[in-house]
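Design request, tokens follow.
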């Protein structure tokens, strides 16, 4: 810091005019939306609609062992901080045969966007 002060003084730049730069806060985790599958009138080119309403999502580790739950917002969207790793997500009370969505790989200092599917059982 002393060398910087001397350099700024030499260049004629007032030291007070320099601002400290704070590095941006980085997050690690996932964000996404729940989509409803199995609704009536499903066709080949059909796009599943968002599953609206507050829902509970169960988070499992790479061994598919559940360790955390969280609620979505009222539109079925979510954002959760997780450590870097591999995860599976399950919308509670789904009857989707495969059950869990994933695997989702979370990288350090990155928020990954994911789509989670919920099977309502309607055919």
């Amino acid at each position: 810091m002393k060398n910087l002060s001397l350099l700024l003084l030499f260049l004629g730049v007032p030291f007070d005019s320099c601002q400290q730069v704070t590095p941006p806060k980085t997050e690690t985790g996932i964000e996404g939306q729940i989509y409803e599958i199995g609704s009536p009138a499903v066709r080949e080119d059909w796009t599943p609609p968002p599953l609206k309403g507050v829902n509970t999502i169960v988070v499992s580790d790479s061994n598919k062992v559940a360790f955390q739950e969280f609620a979505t917002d009222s539109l079925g969207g979510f954002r959760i901080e997780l450590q870097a790793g591999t995860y599976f997500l399950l919308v509670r009370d789904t009857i989707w045969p495969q059950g869990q969505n994933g695997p989702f790989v979370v990288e350090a200092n990155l928020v990954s966007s994911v789509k989670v599917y919920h099977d309502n059982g309607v055919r």
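Comment from the thread starter after seeing the answer: thanks! The longest helix spans residues 2-11.
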